[in-house]
Structures are given as C-alpha cells and as structure tokens.
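Note to self: keep these together.
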Amino acid sequence: MCNALKYILILCFFVSVALADGVKNEPIQPLSMEPDLDPRLVTLGDRLFHDTRLSQDNSLSCASCHVLSTGGSDHRARSVGVGGAMGGIKAPTVYNSRYNFVQFWDGRAPSLEVQASGPVHNPIEMNSNWEEVISKLSNDPAVMEQFDTLFEDSLTGDNITIAIAAFERSLVTVNSRFDRWLQGGLRLMNFVLIVCLRAMDVSVATRA
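Structure:
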C-alpha cells in the first residue's frame, strides 16, 4: 500500500472516531426503553391501565382516553368521562410520557405516579377514590396475588399508581424512522472505522 493511501486511511480513521463521538454526544438521541423496569410490575400496571374498576361506574379505564392502538390518545377534541361528562381538554398521548419532565398539559404533576392518581379522583373523568377502587380490586384474587407478590403493603392507592406508572414508562416508541435515521449516522461511522482498520491490517499483512 502506497504511503499516500495509508495516510488517507489514517486520516479517515481519526475523522470517523471524532464524528462518531460527536453523534453520541448529540442532545437528540434515539429513544430507548427504561432499563430497570420490573416486568412483573409492568404486567400489573398494564392490567390496571385497562381496568374499568378504577372508575366509579366501571365504565372507563385509563385506556379509554389513552387508546394504545390509536397513538395513545382518543382523538377527541375533549375527552369524555363517566356518565358522559365532557372534559375541558384533549387527552395527551401516553406514549413516550416517561420523557416528559412534568405531566398533564399544564405540568401540574411532577411524575407519572402523581399523574396516574389525578383522573381517578377527577369528578368529570373517573369520579372515584382509592377507598372505592381498593374495595373492588380486593375482591379479585388474581389482582391481590400480584400486589402481595410485589409490595410489602399489598394493595394501596400509592401502589396502584406505581404499577400504572411502570407500565406507562414501558410505552416507548423505539426504532421509529427518525431513530433509525439517527442510528444510521452511528452505523455509517462504525462502517468507516471497520473499513479503515481492515485496510490497515491488510497493509501490515502485505508488508509482512
């Protein structure tokens, strides 16, 4: 291999390293799943998210306004609560909500756990309370078994919100087209690095 080509490969190598580091340090990164979620807690949260017993008349669940099959929202200008009560605002999507630094449109909830409690107690949403919800859920042996396994204090309002929040944290739209575009930049840099390294290996082997 001629010296000029060798120098070009070395230059490409260092440029690729610099570019790859630059991509990794970009403020916008591909979305990723939260690594430490307990799958058992997520399963319980999924169950509760779709459980209509969280509402006063057993007609609505979290999934009624946050429809997972339609982008995590109900596509209404204003969501509808128990008894047909009309809400004052559109339900936001639940997807990627773990990335929100506050919850609700006005940011009044600092966490997903606090947010999960709001609709249960809102008179124009689920119009219920934890005492009423716990009374209904405590008659379900399967639900109680899950709570007994996961929590020392079993079924409580706080633990309901912890489970729902864990499920919501799992709702991340990984591998979107935009994420694949971001990852493509990293893959390109890795490819250039591999080509440069292999070319230099061939050069060394040829000289030997």
